[in-house]
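Lecture notes, part 5. Sequence design as translation. It can be helpful to think of inverse folding as translation between two languages: the language of shapes and the language of residues. The source text, in structure tokens, appears below.
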């Protein structure tokens, strides 16, 4: 029953309004309850007289109030509705409700349910069959037909799912369920987004002849957003979000990041410019905090698409870099880590230790929790470092090592190599050499480089060889054309060890300067974050760990979820059986998101052209309001008002009010005033004096930053000093000091250098970096240096310093590393076993050392006959064009047995202390000249290599 915009669901109840006149008559005839008064007998007697009593009636305004209450109750019982909803779909045909219950419907799901309930209510009046179809339901989901009650129950069981809709399958299930030649009234409740098969789907449904009419529900897309990817850069993490095309209003939201415990740890503004469908949220945080992100969610948007799950694969990996020596800042291309840094810096966070001492540098890098540690030409590792690295690898770390002269000359029992290496190296033109540079074969299918394009321009001229073994082919990640491995690796525990059999610079191969080197390193980085198929597996099955709900919340896995099959080099996608979430276990999780890939767009759905009429509808168009509740509420309030009025008429509110003075507040104010005035007047001044005194003391403390030993450090760096190792033997140390003093006198006499007094150093305690040359006499009777002291000397050598070892036993054995040699040589071997010693050779005739100041054919000392051993230089491609070999630096180690200090040693007056053997005055002169050459070589490096042009210059001068 309708009265303009007002309708009644039970109009027959309105007949109760006829009773209102009867109620009015009863209320008027019934007087109000008499007012109670205190009995006054004397007063009553004084005023006694006869008069006619007229009964009191109810006041007119109270009668009207009670009639209004009765009318409101009757109207409320009649189920009044303001602006009643018309029937959306007229007719008696079956009703088919197709609801998009994908991820985009979660935000306003209840509106869809309300609209569907009204449609079911309308259809229930015509007894028409009802079909309920969800477009994100399993293929075997029941769709009807239902009666009104069954349809309502099925609707309540339907819920949004965190997956894209599949309208094609939904419409096909509906068409296959309908009886032949049956037409239905179709109510399509879309989520507003287009799917790839929409045009084909609706055209096919139209041709089926099942449509009688279509009610098309559109959706409001202003609150639809999707996070499509993240980019973990060097200085920030960027989350990319999109919104439907056509939504052009500027919008600023907040994107929040959460860790694996659900704690909110960061937030950033997410802004969409006018007319733009893409926005970016930038998290400017340290990489350690960014790597704790496990999901990013747009605040206030309850959709699975507005939540981005993050697994270990999206973390910005921390990679530690350790080299056998410092790179030359003036010549970065010669640094062993230059090409590695350039290749990885755009993708990972690189850290390098401050110290070259492996006992300090490796723990320092591991404390930063790197995923990968790259070592460039590290030959010998101290035992504590080996144990620490082994545990780190077992726990999941990846160790990548590059070969070089030091690794080629190291011991063959290194446990941190994937394969056993042959001693020495294989070079073009040398032993076990090739006739021409080698190229690469196709990368093995089972290795991490499978699928990479083999570069044609990469050649290898030197490499370290692996000893043949039965599993060598399984460990080969890259192989040369002759079948020898270029890169090998193996898994240790949860981690990996990878070895490049070439140096990290371009001296052994052109691979480091090729684009393939970048891709190979990136593939190795992926070894440390692999959560899917391993390199030797085509696929892996990961059980569901946590699933994402349609509203964007992480929930425990359901019984419907199936394991996720991750195939190698193939992107997994969400489905009804594998919804978005985390798959795997606590040891490794893979995040599966709704959107993966680039160029993702959200397009609004277009209304199709059908042969039947399409009636547009909206989830918010139904503005009908039930007035039963408001009518009951007003009646209840009026009833309460009536009760209060009755109490007032009876005098219940007449009370004597006594006002008492409230002194408590005044007392509190008075107490505060007295307390303030009773404070000592000098307290502020005392506090000010104390603060001024503290500031003065702090300033004095800041300015006085000197520490014990600073004066000695300043003295060491202000003037060049030659140093010697204090062995603990007084006689040996005195000779060393006298020898360094004599060499200093010779330098002042022959060169412009004026060195300071020689300095004795204890490698275990003193800083060694101040001295360009340290002379170390080997005394087999002296205590063996500690591993820490040897490691500090090794770090000094890696940072550019040079140690001159002198066994002083040429007359007995000469300089040799043979374990059966003299006690001094055995002690020297024990010391060098703890160092990264490069391959050594006697000083060649064309070495810079022979021409750094004097032209020296050999280097005698107090004795003669022992060669001076230095780091082996790389053979030149054309010796005739470059007779002076530079070695691109200064040798970090020299070994002799000729007792240099004995030949250089002089007293305070400059007189030699020991005779030469044989006693030849020229031998001492050559020994001193050799010492001058060594010091000048230490200070100038390959400066004298310009003598390469000496022959041409002499010939021009002669002409």
């Amino acid at each position: 029953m309708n009265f303009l915009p007002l309708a009644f669901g039970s109009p027959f109840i309105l007949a109760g309004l006829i009773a209102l006149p009867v109620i009015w008559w009863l209320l008027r005839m019934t007087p109000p309850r008499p007012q109670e008064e205190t009995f006054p007998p004397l007063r009553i007697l004084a005023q006694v007289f006869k008069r006619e009593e007229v009964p009191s009636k109810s006041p007119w305004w109270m009668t009207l109030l009670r009639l209004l209450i009765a009318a409101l109750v009757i109207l409320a019982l009649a189920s009044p509705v303001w602006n009643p909803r018309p029937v959306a779909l007229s007719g008696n045909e079956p009703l088919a409700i197709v609801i998009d219950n994908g991820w985009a419907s979660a935000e306003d799901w209840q509106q869809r349910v309300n609209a569907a309930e009204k449609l079911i209510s309308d259809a229930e009046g015509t007894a028409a069959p009802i079909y309920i179809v969800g477009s994100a339901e399993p293929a075997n989901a029941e769709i009807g037909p239902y009666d009104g009650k069954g349809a309502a129950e099925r609707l309540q069981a339907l819920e949004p799912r965190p997956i894209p809709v599949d309208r094609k399958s939904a419409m096909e299930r509906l068409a296959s369920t309908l009886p032949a030649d049956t037409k239905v009234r179709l109510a399509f409740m879309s989520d507003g987004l287009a799917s790839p098969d929409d045009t084909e789907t609706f055209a096919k449904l139209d041709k089926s002849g099942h449509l009688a009419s279509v009610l098309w529900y559109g959706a409001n897309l202003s609150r639809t957003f999707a996070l499509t990817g993240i980019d973990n850069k060097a200085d920030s993490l960027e989350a990319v979000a999109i919104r439907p095309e056509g939504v052009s209003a500027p919008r600023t939201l907040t994107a929040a990041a959460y860790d694996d415990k659900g704690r909110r740890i960061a937030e950033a503004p997410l802004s969409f410019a006018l007319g733009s469908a893409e926005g970016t949220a930038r998290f400017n945080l340290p990489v350690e905090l960014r790597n704790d992100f496990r999901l990013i969610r747009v605040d206030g948007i309850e959709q699975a698409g507005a939540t981005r799950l993050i697994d270990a694969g999206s973390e910005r990996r921390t990679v530690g870099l350790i080299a056998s020596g410092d790179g030359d800042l003036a010549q970065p291309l010669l640094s062993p880590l230059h090409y590695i840094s350039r290749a990885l810096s755009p993708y990972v966070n690189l850290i390098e230790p401050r110290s070259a001492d492996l006992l300090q540098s490796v723990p320092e890098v591991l404390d930063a929790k790197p995923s990968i540690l790259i070592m460039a030409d590290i030959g010998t590792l101290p035992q504590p470092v080996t144990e620490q690295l082994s545990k780190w690898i077992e726990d999941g770390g990846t160790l990548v090592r590059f070969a070089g002269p030091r690794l080629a000359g190291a011991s063959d029992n290194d446990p941190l190599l994937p394969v056993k290496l042959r001693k020495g190296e294989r070079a073009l033109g040398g032993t076990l050499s090739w006739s021409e540079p080698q190229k690469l074969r196709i990368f093995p299918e089972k290795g991490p480089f499978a699928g990479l394009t083999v570069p044609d321009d990469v050649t290898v001229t030197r490499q370290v060889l692996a000893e043949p073994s039965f599993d060598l082919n399984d460990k080969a990640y890259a192989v040369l054309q002759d079948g020898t491995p270029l890169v090998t690796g193996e898994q240790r525990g949860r981690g990996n060890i990878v070895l490049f059999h070439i140096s990290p610079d371009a001296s052994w191969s052109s691979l480091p300067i090729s684009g393939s080197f970048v891709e190979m390193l990136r593939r190795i980085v992926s070894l440390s974050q692999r959560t899917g198929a391993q390199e030797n597996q085509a696929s892996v099955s990961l059980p569901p760990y946590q699933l994402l709900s349609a509203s964007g919340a992480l929930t425990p896995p359901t019984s419907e979820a199936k394991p996720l099959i991750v195939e190698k080099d193939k992107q997994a996608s969400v489905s009804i059986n594998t919804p978005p979430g985390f798959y795997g276990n606590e040891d490794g999780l893979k995040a599966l998101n709704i959107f993966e890939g680039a160029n993702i767009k959200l397009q609004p759905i277009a209304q199709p052209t059908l042969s039947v009429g399409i009636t547009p509808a909206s989830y918010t168009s139904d503005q009908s309001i039930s007035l039963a509740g408001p009518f009951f509420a007003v009646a209840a309030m009026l009833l309460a008002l009536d009760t209060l009025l009755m109490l007032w008429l009876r005098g219940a509110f007449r009370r004597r009010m006594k006002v008492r003075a409230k002194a408590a507040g005044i007392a509190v104010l008075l107490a505060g005033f007295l307390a303030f005035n009773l404070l000592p007047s000098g307290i502020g001044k005392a506090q000010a004096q104390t603060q001024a005194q503290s500031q003065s003391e702090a300033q004095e403390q800041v300015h006085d930053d000197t520490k014990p030993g600073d004066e000695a450090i300043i003295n060491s760096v202000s003037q060049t000093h030659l140093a010697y190792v204090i062995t603990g033997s007084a006689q040996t140390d005195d000779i060393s000091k006298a020898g360094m003093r004599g060499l200093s006198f010779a330098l002042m006499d022959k060169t412009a250098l004026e060195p300071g007094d020689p300095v004795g150093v204890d490698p275990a305690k003193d800083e060694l970096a101040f001295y360009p040359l340290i002379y170390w006499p080997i005394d087999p009777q002296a205590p063996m240096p500690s591993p820490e002291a040897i490691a500090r000397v090794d770090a000094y050598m890696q940072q550019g310093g040079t140690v001159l070892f002198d066994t002083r036993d040429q007359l007995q054995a000469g300089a040799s590393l043979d374990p059966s040699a003299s006690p001094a040589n055995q002690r020297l071997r024990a010391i060098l076993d703890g160092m990264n010693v490069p391959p050594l050779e006697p000083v060649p005739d064309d070495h810079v050392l022979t021409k750094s100041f004097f032209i020296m054919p050999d280097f005698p000392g107090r004795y003669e006959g022992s060669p001076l051993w230095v780091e082996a230089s790389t053979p030149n491609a054309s010796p005739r064009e470059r007779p002076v070999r530079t070695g691109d630096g200064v040798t970090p180690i020299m070994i002799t047995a000729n007792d240099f200090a004995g030949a250089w040693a002089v007293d305070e007056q400059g007189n030699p202390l020991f005779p030469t053997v044989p006693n030849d005055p020229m031998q001492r002169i050559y020994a001193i000249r050799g010492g001058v050459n060594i010091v000048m070589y230490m200070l100038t490096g390959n400066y004298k290599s310009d003598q390469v042009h000496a022959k041409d210059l002499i010939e021009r001068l002669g002409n």
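The translated text above is only one of many valid answers, since several sequences can fold into similar shapes. The mean pLDDT is 81.
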